[in-house]
Amino acid sequence: MRFNNIVVLTGAGVSAESGIKTFRDSNGLWENHQIEDVATPEGYQRNPALVHQFYNQRRAQLLDPKLKPNAAHLALARFEQEHIARGGRFLLITQNVDNLHQRAGSDSVIAMHGQLQKVKCPVTGKNQSWLKDLTGADLCHCCKIPQPLRPDIVWFGEMPYQMELCAEALMQADLFISIGTSGQVYPAAGFVQIAAQAGAHTVELNMEATRGDFAEGYYGPAAKVVPTYLKRLD
Ligand code: BJW
Questions:
Q1: Which of 6, 48, 195, 225 has the fewest Cβ atoms surrounding its Cβ within 10 A?
Q2: Which domains occur in the chain, in start order?
Q3: Residue from 57, 186, 211, 224 to probe ligand 1 pocket by mutation (most atoms less than 8 Å from CB)
Q4: Closest CA to 160 of 5, 19, 11, 20
Q5: Active-site annotation holds for 73
Q6: pLDDT digits (tens, 9 = 90+) for 118-130
């Protein structure tokens, strides 16, 4: 086995062929929305109803029976199982808030930007599963004074989840693969440097080359490029 400790980072591009919009491509999620209105704590304070509408629509999409993991999600899940069976280590860090990696069978997943199908208490951060629409009238009762629940999504200016675990894995990685992310949002955009400085081989699989400094890159739709690349690692 050429690589033992493998860390994969995924972004919106890995779910594009399942029918989930990316953020920054044309016709992406940001085309009809101002980032500061729907993806910041300040936007939520100004207009919670607008923010709820934005996430309710996307949460509802996850319940569409037509929505399925694509060949890239499935290949990653299969590769993880086989790699672990061979005694390797594997961590998938996703920036995506859909649950397609989990549905595909990926086991070791960090959802660093949260999850659409969870909501949380704005005071304690205690989260719970939530599959339906969320409104300002939905309250969390974990504090003495009930608080309006908010989407369990990491907005700009907030700390992504499990950063210590991510850093530890990146420092130990001998292979870092970045899939379907534009590399415009930190800290995820800096993972390639951390891994490279720690000695990992770095690979980008994306529709097009980004500005990230990768040792190797393969370009095209994730559902094609990811299974092909992972087969070569077997
Ligand atoms: C395909 C494909 C196909 C298409 N096949 N590929 C100045 C400098 C540096 C940093 C900062 C700065 N000012 C502020 C910051 C920090 C800030 C940041 O990075 N800002 C940038 C805009 C500069 N970051 C943060 O605030 C983060 N927190 C943080 O830093 O905490 C530290 C801290 C906190 C407090 C105090 C002190 C320190 C939090 C970031 C949260 C990001 N959240 C979002 C929105 C979540 C809500 C929602 O889902 O609506 O997460 S932003 C959005 O972007 C979403 C995504 O996860 C994230 C990344 O996007 P992604 O996945 O890369 O998607 P796209 O659309 O950009 O790219 C898709 C790619 O796929 C493209 O390359 C396509 O080509 C490709 N593709 N189809 C393969 N079929």
A1: 48
A2: 5-20+69-113+159-233 (3.40.50.1220), 29-65+119-153 (3.30.1600.10)
A3: 186
A4: 11
A5: no
A6: 999 999 999 999 9
